[in-house]
């Protein structure tokens, strides 16, 4: 027997949207001048990418066409640490993990902004760890975002800045799972993205190590698929 319900109102549960936060990394990103055309005309781009993906000296401290063009501490990450510490209410004793920490400059700033925080960093680059900020080098280790060697719910804040887009899609989902697993409530990740064809072209010209890059809507699809519940922000190449 079939019953047809007419006129019944079924409560609709609105899906919670993850917060997007753009003001953290843009404070640093927008300070750099970028010549997009020069990036693809001064040196064979494919060869530059092959060199950059070794994440060795050339990527960090070699010529600009291979990466940072000299990744040295200059204090620019202090304002980012200040805003994150305020936004997430960080206090002495809190544990912070940076996935893709590089030379650890942002983690160092956290120790200055909130004395007493416990910082941990992991990065795939042995060169970056070997040449990290001396004050926190002992808290950094070589590793991959796909397998974070930490217990569940271990960190009060997990961050990953401009690193996850260097993974292939199947590894990206695993890394998002891992970040969700080891973090408690507060998490923040930032990735390259694009909203227009112009921004997409600029991103393709500028990037050296990306294996995946998406529109904001596609990134949000990945977050939902992987069960990531934290905050996020995007870098646009305008």
Describe the structure.
With 238 residues, this protein is an alpha/beta fold. It has ten helices and six strands. It has a six-stranded parallel beta sheet. β4 (155-161), α8 and β5 form a beta-alpha-beta unit. α5 (78-88) packs across α6 and α8 packs across α10 (216-226). The model is unreliable at 1-17 (pLDDT under 50).
Structural class: alpha/beta
Overall pLDDT level: 89
The strand order across the widest sheet is 3-2-1-4-5-6
Report the radius of gyration as a whole number of Å.
Answer: 20 Å
Distance between the termini: 61 Å
Approximate strand percentage: 15-25%
List SSEs in N-to-C order.
Answer: HHHHHEHEHEEHEHHE
- List the uncertain runs: 1-17
Shape: globular
* Percentage of residues assigned to helices: 25-40%
What are its keywords?
238 residues, alpha/beta, disordered N terminus, 35% helix
Secondary-structure blueprint of this entry?
Blueprint: H1 26-29, H2 36-41, H3 45-52, H4 57-61, H5 78-88, E1 95-99, H6 105-113, E2 118-123, H7 126-130, E3 140-142, E4 155-161, H8 169-182, E5 183-192, H9 197-206, H10 216-226, E6 231-235
Parallel strand pairs: 1-2, 1-4, 2-3, 4-5, 5-6
Helix pairs in contact: 5-6, 8-10
């Amino acid at each position: 027997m079939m019953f047809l319900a007419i006129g019944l109102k079924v409560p609709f549960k609105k899906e919670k949207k993850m917060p997007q936060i753009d003001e953290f990394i843009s404070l640093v990103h927008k300070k750099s001048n970028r010549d997009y055309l020069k990036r693809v005309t001064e040196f064979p781009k494919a060869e530059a990418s092959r060199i950059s993906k070794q994440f060795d000296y050339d990527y960090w401290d070699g010529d600009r066409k291979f990466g940072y063009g000299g990744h040295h501490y200059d204090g620019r990450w202090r304002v980012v640490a200040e805003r994150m510490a305020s936004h997430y209410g960080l206090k002495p004793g809190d544990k912070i993990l940076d996935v893709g920490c590089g030379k650890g400059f942002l983690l160092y700033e956290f120790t200055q902004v909130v004395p007493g925080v416990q910082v941990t960093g992991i990065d795939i680059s042995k060169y970056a760890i070997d040449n990290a900020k001396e004050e926190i080098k002992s808290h950094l280790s070589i590793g991959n975002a796909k397998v974070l060697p930490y217990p569940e719910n271990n960190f009060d804040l997990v961050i990953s800045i401009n690193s996850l887009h260097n993974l292939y899609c199947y590894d990206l989902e695993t890394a998002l799972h891992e970040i969700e697993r080891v973090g408690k409530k507060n998490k923040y990740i930032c990735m390259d993205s694009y909203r227009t064809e112009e921004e997409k072209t600029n991103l393709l010209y500028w990037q050296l190590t990306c294996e995946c890059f998406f529109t904001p809507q596609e990134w949000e699809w990945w977050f939902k698929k992987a069960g990531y519940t934290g905050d996020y922000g995007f870098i646009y190449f305008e």
